[in-house]
Amino acid sequence: MSNVRTPDPYPGWLSPEDLHEARQRLPMMYVEALPVRVDTLGYVTELGLLLTASDEGEMVRTFVSGRVLYRESIRAALLRHLEKDLGPFALPQIPPSPAPFTVAEYFPSPSPSPYTDDRQHAVALAYIVPVTGECSPRQDALQLSWLTPEECLSEGVQAEFVGGRGNLVRQALAHVGWGR
Amino acid sequence: MSNVRTPDPYPGWLSPEDLHEARQRLPMMYVEALPVRVDTLGYVTELGLLLTASDEGEMVRTFVSGRVLYRESIRAALLRHLEKDLGPFALPQIPPSPAPFTVAEYFPSPSPSPYTDDRQHAVALAYIVPVTGECSPRQDALQLSWLTPEECLSEGVQAEFVGGRGNLVRQALAHVGWGR
Amino acid sequence: MSNVRTPDPYPGWLSPEDLHEARQRLPMMYVEALPVRVDTLGYVTELGLLLTASDEGEMVRTFVSGRVLYRESIRAALLRHLEKDLGPFALPQIPPSPAPFTVAEYFPSPSPSPYTDDRQHAVALAYIVPVTGECSPRQDALQLSWLTPEECLSEGVQAEFVGGRGNLVRQALAHVGWGR
Amino acid sequence: MSNVRTPDPYPGWLSPEDLHEARQRLPMMYVEALPVRVDTLGYVTELGLLLTASDEGEMVRTFVSGRVLYRESIRAALLRHLEKDLGPFALPQIPPSPAPFTVAEYFPSPSPSPYTDDRQHAVALAYIVPVTGECSPRQDALQLSWLTPEECLSEGVQAEFVGGRGNLVRQALAHVGWGR
User: Fold this and answer.
1) Which of B82, B161, C154, D110 is a good FRET partner for B119, with 20 to 30 A between their CA atoms?
2) Taken in order B15, B19, B20, B25, is the CA torsion positive or negative?
3) Pfam family example for this protein (chains A, B, C, D) (predicted)?
4) Residue B76 sits in a domain of what CATH number?
5) What is the distance in angstroms between the Cα of B135 and the nearest Cα belonging to chain D?
6) Residue C12 domain-assigned?
7) Minimal CA–CA distance to B105: which of B157, B30, B26?
8) What number of other Cβ atoms are within 10 A of residue D116's Cβ?
9) pTM score, two decimals?
10) Do the domain assignments include residue B180?
């Protein structure tokens, strides 16, 4: 944010520099979506996990996730990030209730919560989102894989999550009643 | 149930007479589904209400509802009653989580809860179920109408519910964040 | 239930024999409570697990659990079973919302769900119940122990559950946001 | 935030001026608590509403509410605001689950949601918090009154809310199963 109080041609817009500063001062509002395939009875058969490169160049598992912008609704942010990561034909079914199944609080480490994010303090509202359409990640670096609940909970896959996100998958599966 | 303890050719089956008796002795397990139309952001735009004749021959509003049978899962009971009342092409999206948005306890009047049912003590697990397909009630006596949240909360429509079900509609709309 | 349709002096009462029969024909309505100790911030620090003898004489872990009686409300059933198992000074805080955190469906094995009960088909509404008072199990055979979330999830303790109840503990801990 | 990038002696601290600017650019993270009195069965008997002066000098009803600070957990923010508004002896019972019963999105008017706040875009996680102790608002200007659910829903009281908060009370009461 600028000290010069002239009218701002882009209200709601933050320069990369100002966003960097805000991240040192305010909790950032995020949404996280766990895309799932369900059968006709509503049982979750697969979760959609993204494979992406971390800042350190490591391949890590993650989910659809992103910031809520100024004057953007939670639902609009969810849809925007789902379309960005799953493509325009995924047909995500945003849940009718605005209540998330859990809230994940990411803090710079050491964190009082199971979740860490060294860039910022982020509060993520987490939703389970059935998708029925075809998914084609639009971002080149990104790969989407559909894994069964068992696979998501396997040691191998759990080791590929960073920032505590493996725990969020366990919470999501518990929420949908999944038991091994 | 018979006093004669011979092997039962129809385990899980209750004669009308025995069902009548069980209703005087045990709480009956029900599911209730509020079918909704949602937009791409997940906002509820319409609720599907059934119009049916009460035992007294009066036309009353109700929702998809019915008993859970012996060895039937909640999800299977939901799907069965949704198909019975909305037809085979409704494409109901049973929610991924087994937790109902509320539990409605129907008691013979006078009832300690807002819900009454003079035939029995019924405990209904209530779910909001988006439907995307075409609905055609299969039972002749039944009519399905799609009403906006405002219409559902109007005095006229609220007066057409019996047994306290108008309250359940208010709870469902509150759960999806609806505010007039 | 008797075939002789004389007026019943004990409406709502089921003989052991009739209850046995009903269990072959109808889903039975249960409540399950996971008593927890919480700190001032609401974090769960301990779960109260019961140690009891199974029908086979084995010691097994279980939670506060029991049937909902005819014309008994869910809340009254919860309080009754909590008092029976934790004593009259436990001061359980029944949650303000009637919605359970999950629904556990117990079926005679083989079961389509993670939960089994060979006596019956039981549908259990599961609640997390903070208790602040002193607990003294009233039933002689019963022992109550308070375990940390880590202990509850340990292999040793998980092996002491039967009927899939270890899964319900994992669901409860996930619901309260617990992550290792 | 300052343009001069010298080390900041108070990380996490925002000057009133910088907070004012951030409010034009980022959604602000809030918590809202509806303090309730419950009976031994968990039924809500009363809600605690605050009476406070709006910026225009009008007396308005509101609830315990406030910002989540940088590196502050949701639970810590809830407790801090509850203590600020209800005093140190209220003994609030922060719920074990981090999931709010609803999320209220306040936008500068005209708002796409039922909630408005002309100062900012605020996202409030809303919780129902039983309190068992004695409440004594510490801020001079503030008065706390305990109202029954019926009173909260009365036209008179509903007219005293601003920014759509009357709707949040209706949602809270629906969540706890209240039906008139």
Assistant:
1) B82
2) positive
3) DUF4916
4) 3.90.79.10
5) 29
6) no
7) B30
8) 16
9) 0.92
10) no
